[in-house]
Design brief:
This protein has 344 residues and is an alpha/beta fold. The chain contains twelve helices and 18 strands. The chain has two domains: 175 residues, Quinone Oxidoreductase, Chain A, domain 1; 134 residues, Rossmann fold. Strand 4 and strand 5 form a beta hairpin. Helix 4 crosses helix 5 and helix 4 crosses helix 11. GO terms for molecular function: oxidoreductase activity, acting on the CH-OH group of donors, NAD or NADP as acceptor; zinc ion binding.
Length: 344
Amino acid sequence: MRNRAAYMVTPGKMEIRELPMPQAQPGEVVLKIEYVGVCGSDAHFFESGMRKGKAFDLPFILGHECAGTVTQVGAGVQNVAVGDRVCFEPQITCGVCPECRSGRYNLCKDVRFPSVPPYDGMLRDYAAIPAHLAFKLPDNVSSLEGALIEPLAVGLSAASRGDVTLGQDVVILGAGCIGLLTMMACKARGAGRVIVSDLFSKRLDKALELGADAVIDASTEDTMARVTELTEGRGADVVFETAGNSHTAAETSDLVRRGGVIVFVGNINGETPYRFMDLMYKEGEIRTIYRYHNNFPTAIRAVSTGRIDVKAIASHQFDFQNVQEAFDAALYQRQDVVKAVIKL
């Protein structure tokens, strides 16, 4: 058996090499990886070669959204068996810090997250992973859908942080993968009206296809005026910033209703001017999310029961040998590519 891996060798360039086959240590399983999604963070690292303003060591393996089949189990593993199809929750935490012990392990300061430097990711044929982070997929959930459980977990976490409930008006700024999954999570929780804003018409068409009640083309329309119109002057109960853009972040205080909630989901780098007094007059609340915790089983059930059609997010598929093309598309065709997925 071969264990190919896609290495980022310089910023913007991929090269396929071979790795030794992994062996399952106690508490681990070896996964034959079948699908890997290209995350926005992968695209950022691929383009810049930087993390937190510093260059990271190359070559490096990207990718953390994945699913596949267990081919080997280590000593003591009981939750999965050889032949099981699983998805991987890629947060390898210490398990003993106050955050881990409280259940908020996504905040563990010693987390090892594959594809975040210096920890190599999952764009390879085989990888050994902790068994407790392998979640079995039901027969009616494909491995492609399994690879999308990880970004769905982000959307579910966002909707949960926003406390979205039945009948509420929700605004989502940004119709990329995470924005659309947040929208679908809000709809699954019973949101009454979900309004999605973006600069690209094709993404807005996708939002409508997946269940948005209204869309706003921010390249030609006044987002605040349209939200005011659509909500009969009240503003949104919950506003999600998923674009990771300082401009959309700054306008959230204009869009939320009095006593409403703003959730920052996107990665906003640098300084962002914000009119806090406007939000104070409304007694609005700002919340944030960082990844997710304890919701992979919920995400899997949402897909298995048909509540969320996660596979509709996978707009473009690429074979493994075309990994360079996949990353180029994710970077330079953002108006068309909602989610690039690589098949191994």
